[in-house]
């Protein structure tokens, strides 16, 4: 039986502790150690400022290299809510 190398992975001897903090490591990889925002069942209870803040958080999450599944759907939901509120406030 022949041995085949499919993936050759070399682990550097330098560790995260030698190069910086865990946060710097996550930032380097484009990851975040922050918890993703959780949308409430009903956005009606949130102020417009709170919806805008959530929208910004989800946008930053989508801008990461590996956003979570569902981030784009959450963003679209928030944008739709902001659009509805803007239309309702028009005279």
Q: What report would you give on this structure?
A:
With 91 residues, the protein is an all-alpha fold. It has a domain at 34-89. 51% of the residues lie in helices and 0% in strands. The chain is built from 4 helices and no strands. It has helices at 16-19, 22-29, 48-62, 71-89.
Describe the structure concisely for a colleague.
Helix content is 51%, strand content 0%.
What layout of secondary structure does this protein have?
Layout: H1 16-19, H2 22-29, H3 48-62, H4 71-89
Key words describing this protein structure:
91 residues; 4 helices; elongated
Count of individual helical segments = 4
For the secondary structure, the number of strands is 0
Proportion of residues in extended strands: under 5%
Largest sheet report: none
Return the average pLDDT rounded to an integer.
75
């Amino acid at each position: 039986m022949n041995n085949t190398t499919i993936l050759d992975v070399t682990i550097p001897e330098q560790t995260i502790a030698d190069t910086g903090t865990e946060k710097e490591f996550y930032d380097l990889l484009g990851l975040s150690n922050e918890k993703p925002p959780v949308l409430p069942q009903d956005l009606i209870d949130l102020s417009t400022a709170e919806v805008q803040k959530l929208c910004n958080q989800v946008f930053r999450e989508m801008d990461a290299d590996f956003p979570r599944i569902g981030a784009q759907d959450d963003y679209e939901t928030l944008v739709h809510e902001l659009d509805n509120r803007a239309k309702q406030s028009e005279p």
